[in-house]
Write a structure and sequence with these properties.
Length: about 240
Amino acid sequence: MRFDVLTLFPEIFSGYLTQSLLKLAIDRDLASVHLHNLRDYSKGKHKEVDDRPFGGGPGMLLKPEPTIDCVEAVQADPSAGGPGRLLMLTPQGRRLDQPYVEDLAQSPRLLLLCGRYEGFDQRITDLLQPEEVSIGDYVLNGGEVAAMTIIDAVVRLEPGVLGDETSSQEDTFSRAGRNLEYAQYTRPREYRGLAVPEVLLSGDHEAIARWREQNAAERTQQRRADLLPAASRSDQPAADTTN
Ligand code: 6GU
């Protein structure tokens, strides 16, 4: 899986690329991330990439010429094996969720176009026809954190990236109607007066499975009843015994 990130701030990605599970995926040739600085495509004397909006208003917009030149150059890279799927990171976009992540993971190549300032000149969108993606209903200062979020969520679905012991198919949100994860404990058995539930120490695998299922169902009902099919939502949630 190949990711191309188009940004004014490629440095933001350096720690993420060298410190995370993504680094392991890159080292094992399961993923590659190519950073492209939009500023390198500015033909202006001062390498400008942004300008004030016509009609007035706050902030600066990404200019069409360097942005589109950068996208077209990256799309046309003959070593990349095809133009890939172009994503524009913007709070106006389609909201990311796990089914969308699973769909993105089918693509061999994603281009992630990050905006800064107040956004993009509309002609960038009109000409490039990107998929506009948002990671949630709040406003970030730029698309970089959103791009990292997408890469992080997509790369863990790439076969071989997660260890054998972990299955992304077990993840919360990986299909509709799934519960949140159950509570988990490690050593010590007691900490500041809080004991690990006895059943988890029992060695009784069936009892453990039942406890986990019950705990997951309770937490989901308490916290995220919106994830449950309407029919199984209780109107009167029980007292919260979950953590
Ligand atoms: Cl993709 N960009 C920005 N600037 N803010 C956001 C976002 C993206 N998704 C949620 N908020």
